Amino acid sequence: MKIRQADIAEAVTVLARIKEFASPADEAALEARLKGREPLILVAEKDGQLVGVKIGYRLSETCFYSWLGGVAPEGRCSGVAQALLEAQEAWVAEQGYQELRVKSRNRFPAMLRLLLRNSYLIEHMEKKDGIEDYRLHFVKSLAIK
């Protein structure tokens, strides 16, 4: 498996295959969200096929936000999400950020487990329509201790 930086078009090809997302991926919407935010777009490539994506951007001089990511069905249960998370963390640390922030929902238990396994801490819970859509806000300090 290869993890590499990518463009929005490649990210959309992966996101379009992730049925759990409420609305289909749209290049224009992603471009608008990322414009001027110093984004990092990573993809996971396995046997020549894009199977995962992780997108984040600068929130402040010290904080990076891991905004959107997922693994296509054919890439699941093979370490793709973990590899993307590790690559993003390494890049974020190299850029000098001190913390990473992520939001997820109860409806994505695999993501919640991944974050907890990787020392992300729950900082806040935001109630939404139904309990499955409650947003859990995570933070991980990257500061050297």
From TrEMBL:
One of its GO terms (molecular function) is acyltransferase activity, transferring groups other than amino-acyl groups. SUPFAM superfamilies: Acyl-CoA N-acyltransferases (Nat). It comes from the Bacteria. Gene3D superfamilies: 3.40.630.30. Residues 1-145 form the N-acetyltransferase domain. This is N-acetyltransferase domain-containing protein. It comes from Photobacterium marinum. The lineage of its organism: Bacteria, Pseudomonadati, Pseudomonadota, Gammaproteobacteria, Vibrionales.
